[in-house]
Design brief:
Helix content: 55-70%
Shape: globular
Structural class: alpha+beta
Oligomer: single chain
Number of domains: 1
Number of helices: 4
Strand order of the largest sheet: 1-2-3
Largest sheet: 3 strands, antiparallel
């Protein structure tokens, strides 16, 4: 199978599955719980975790309420950018493929809500943390995975440089001989 098709197939399966899960759980909450009501299977669990039907016209943590259309446009832009750059950035890295797939699922899941019902349905409430949904969780996990990936890659590069290897932008290694800084040229 063509490598480009395989790359997009992974993106489609992961992002598509999570988007379907997100939309299904949101519809289940909208059809089962009146706005603002709380459900918990056990009373003792209620202070720690519960389902709360909530509307959000802003972004994470309830910031920027009333800007639904702006965030719908941003979600559409983010989705298109991820789809366009996905094969170029992710390459053969499964970690990057997962991170970008999670972020696409989250952006697209919330985009669907914003354009179809005019707000995002949030319902997962844990402790005192703001109420969120599957799409929000996908975005957050995708960003954390991406940041950890970048952090570990930076550490690898620093370790290689300490060992006397130089990593150029194309990922090719070259060996540093002596003190190869400009102005420290040595005659051999």
């Amino acid at each position: 199978m063509n490598k480009l098709v395989k790359n997009y197939l992974f993106l489609l399966i992961v992002a598509g599955s999570l988007t379907i899960l997100d939309q299904w759980t949101k519809e289940l909450v909208r059809s089962s719980l009146p706005m603002g009501s709380i459900w918990s299977p056990w009373e003792w669990l209620n202070p720690y975790a519960r389902i709360v039907h909530w509307h959000n016209t802003g972004v994470a943590f309830g910031m920027f309420q009333g800007m639904n259309n702006v965030f719908a446009v941003l979600a559409a832009i983010v989705s298109v950018v991820i789809i366009y750059y996905y094969p170029r950035i992710a390459g053969d890295s499964r970690i990057l493929k997962w991170a970008m797939s999670l972020q696409l699922a989250g952006a697209f899941g919330n985009f669907i809500d914003r354009v179809t019902i005019g707000y995002v349905t949030d319902f997962i409430s844990v402790g005192n943390f703001p109420v969120f949904n599957v799409a929000d969780a996908s975005i957050s996990v995708g960003v954390v995975v991406l940041l950890l990936y970048v952090w570990f890659q930076e550490r690898k590069i620093r370790e290689k440089e300490k060992l006397g290897e130089q990593v150029d932008p194309d990922g090719m290694k070259t060996e540093i001989v002596g003190n190869a800084l400009p102005g420290n040229e040595q005659e051999f």
